[in-house]
Amino acid sequence: MTFDVTRVRAGDSQQSVALVVNLSGSIPLEDLPERILAGHHIYQITVNPPADSEPTLISSAADLASFEGIMRKFLASVEADHGRIDAIDLFPAVGVSAAVTIGQVLMPHVSSAWNIHDRGDDEGFFHALRVKR
Q1: What is the 3-state secondary structure (H, E, C) of 74-125?
Q2: Are 85 and 17 in contact (CB under 8 A)?
Q3: Residue 42, CB-side half-sphere exposure with 13 Å CA sphere
Q4: How far apart, in whole angstroms, are the C-alpha atoms of residue 90 and residue 20?
Q5: What pLDDT was estimated at residue 49?
Q6: pLDDT tens, position by position, 81-90
Q7: According to the model, what pLDDT value does residue 121 have?
Q8: Which of 22, 32, 96, 131 is the most exposed, fewest CB within 10 Å of its CB?
Q9: Mind listing the pLDDT tens digit for each residue in 59-107?
Q10: What is the rounded CA–CA span in Å between residue 53 and residue 23?
Q11: SS3 helix, strand, coil % of the chain, rounded to 5?
Q12: Chain center to CA of 28
C-alpha cells in the first residue's frame, strides 16, 4: 500500500502549515476551522487507489512502514519549503498504529511540534494536544 502527500491549498504565511491525514476516514477541507482555511498552507495525506480510507486500512507492518515513509517525506518537505517552524496543525483521521507513528517520526530538537486537533460534540475542531519531541 502506498500513500501520497499533496499541498491542497497555498497559504499566506510560510510559518503556518496544516496537515490533514485521511486514513481511517475523511476530513473534508471545508470542515477545518476558519483560521486554518484563512491563511495556512494545507497539505493532505491519503492512501493511493485501489485502497480507500477506512478504519482497518493499515493492517500490516509493511503498510505502517509505508505510512511512516510518507510522514518523514512530509516533514522533510516542510523544512525545505517553510524552514523551521514552531508547530504544524494536525487534523488526523487515523487508527491507533498510525497515530503512534505520527508521534514517532518527530526528531528531537529538529521537528516542529504537532498541534493536534480533534472533533468536538458540535462537529467543530478543537486543539486537543501539543506533541513535541
Answers
A1: HHHHHHHHHCCCCEEEEEEECCHHHHHHHHHCCCCCCCCEEEEEEECCCCCE
A2: yes
A3: 20
A4: 6
A5: 80
A6: 998 999 999 9
A7: 79
A8: 96
A9: 789 999 999 999 999 999 999 999 899 999 999 999 999 999 999 998 8
A10: 5
A11: 30, 30, 40
A12: 13
Which CA distances in Å does 71 have to 13, 34, 38, 56, 74? Answer: 22, 25, 24, 19, 5
Query: Cell 504565511 identifies what position?
Result: 13
**pLDDT for residue 5 is more than 80:** yes
- Nearest in space to 81 (alpha carbons), one of 3, 6, 29: 6
> Residue 5 forms beta bridges with which residues?
45
Burial of 83 (0-12, 13-18, 19+ CB in 10 A): exposed
Length of the chain: 133
